[in-house]
Specification:
The chain has 290 residues and is mainly alpha-helical. Helix content is 58%, strand content 4%. Helix 8 packs across helix 9 and helix 8 crosses helix 10. It starts with a helix and ends with a helix.
């Protein structure tokens, strides 16, 4: 191993940054990338193992129990956002999308996720869950993270007693804009390729709103209880995420709690402002002279 490769590995472990050209490795472009990926990921796995050695193992659970938990958590959201005929395929997708980062899964996850930065963030997420030293003191403090249609969730999820938090719902909400309808066997419609069309800048707003609204529904039995919890949520809300404006999230949750179809309110407030199908139809009519 050359000095340049060692430096790249040290930089990656320290910061999560990696050279997109893998210039420190020998060979053609694809060969360099293959070697770089292998060296960086194996070093990450070894570092995580060293830092977590001797720490109490996070609790474990079989895949069946995870699927049951996920279905119970996300079923109200799916029922509120999708037509009856579409719900079961979406629920099956979500049941298999959540991966809890346990000691027996972390190595596989770190080696297989697509992006080096994602692997680094997941390494820190796992280290935090077992009380080990993070790779960097400034590493993001997160309990969940999504890549494509997979939601990675820390075992800290089971110890989180925050009244309006649910990282399974939060990360599952991101799957809707990352997964195409045909992936789950649903027919694509004109101008509807994804499960849900969410404005790019509103994706975190959507996830935070779904998360809070789901928890309010769990804890309430009447419209007045929902309204009271929405007010409490607004008063104590603190979102340390620059991608989501807290006041906007609070307003959406408040309006959802006041409506009969609250999930539809959240979707409408986070959908693209333009209507591409309508605009496309108008342009077609203009070209044909109608």
């Amino acid at each position: 191993m050359t000095a340049g490769i060692r430096e790249e590995i040290e930089r990656y472990l320290r910061t999560g940054d990696s050279d997109p050209y893998a210039a420190a490795w020998q060979g053609a472009f694809l060969e360099r990338h293959e070697h770089a990926r292998k060296d960086l990921r194996e070093a990450l796995v070894a570092e995580v193992a060293a830092r977590s050695r001797g720490k109490p193992a996070a609790r474990t659970g079989d895949d069946r129990n995870v699927a049951e938990l996920v279905r119970r958590k996300v079923e109200p959201m799916v029922a509120g956002l999708f037509r009856r005929a579409e719900r079961e395929p979406v629920l099956r997708l979500l049941e298999g999308s959540v991966v809890f980062l346990t000691r027996d899964r972390i190595r596989e996850v770190l080696l297989e996720v697509s992006w080096p930065r994602t692997a680094w963030n997941l390494a820190n997420l796992y280290l935090a869950s077992v009380g080990a030293e993070l790779l960097d003191e400034q590493a993001p403090s997160i309990v969940g993270l999504s890549e494509d249609t997979t939601c990675f969730v820390s075992m800290e999820y089971f110890d989180d007693d925050a009244p309006f938090s649910d990282f399974v719902v939060h990360e599952a909400a991101h799957v809707f804009h990352n997964c195409k309808r045909r992936t789950v066997g649903l027919p694509e419609k004109p101008c509807r390729e994804w499960l849900l069309d969410i404005e790019y800048s509103k994706r975190e707003v959507f996830a935070y709103s779904c998360e809070a609204y789901a928890r309010i529904l769990e804890r309430s039995r009447s419209p007045s209880e929902r309204a009271a919890l929405a007010e409490k949520y607004e008063n104590c809300l603190e979102i340390l995420d620059e991608r989501a404006e807290p006041r906007e999230v609070a307003a959406i949750v408040r309006d959802a709690c006041a409506a009969r179809a609250g999930w539809k309110v959240i979707l409408a407030r986070c959908s693209p402002a333009h209507q591409p199908c309508r605009e496309r139809r108008i342009r077609s009519q203009e070209r044909s002279g109608r």
